[in-house]
Task: structure prediction
Amino acid sequence: MAPPRPYWKGYLKLSLVTCPVSMMPATSESEKVRFHTLNRKTNNRVVSRYVDAETGKVVDEDDEAKGYERGENDFLVIEDEELESVALESARTIDIEKFVPRNTIEWVWLEKPHYLSPSDEVGHEAFSVIRDAMEAEKVVGISRLVIGRRERAVMLEPCGKGIIVWTLRYGDEVREPENYFGDIGDGDTDPKLMSLVTSLIEERSKPWNPDMVQDPVQEKLKEIIESKRKSAKKGAKPKGKDEEPAYTGNVIDLMSALKKSLETKKSGGKKS
Result:
């Protein structure tokens, strides 16, 4: 199977060392079931169009513009040419500006991963030297890159023979965890409860497998679509999902619940 076409092509630069590279998203949603909005009466697709909020008339594409709201119903128009003139250097070059220890960047700053690789054999050596040096020093590179006409902060992390480029959230986009976790009690954990939970964790621990995070909704949607394809009866409806057991609202003693979980596991019975 041939690799997909590059999402972005440009140059990786560290001081005077430069090499041509290409980048692809590390994740994909192309296999997801997607729907179009239809007119139920005609079965034709519905087309989305921009309309003027005051006149209600459809706005031609040539008349659409981006506006910054500086006051109520007061907008400053920004032209496409002005947007394109911003950060031109980072539009085609990933210039590594600084390095930081990998273990100092927490997961909450990481946004979306991309695979970076040399785009021709001439750049293999320079690419490999940068990658291997970061791996040896246990650091990641910090740079900037224009993606989708927006300049993003990015982190470069060695990954096998390649490099992963993570887009990073900006400082004002990450909320402090203390604002949400501050009220959680600091009391000592009951050793007996700790022992029971630890036992449950040990029994349920397995090596990572991507099958652990399959999307059951997508599988159900595919079954519904396949059922409709095969059905010759007009108006036939797929079977609904199983009803979930109603929540009784009973408060169960934590110690009893944990002991019961372990006993059920040992007896090979089903969980209650």
About this structure: The two ends are 46 Å apart (CA to CA).
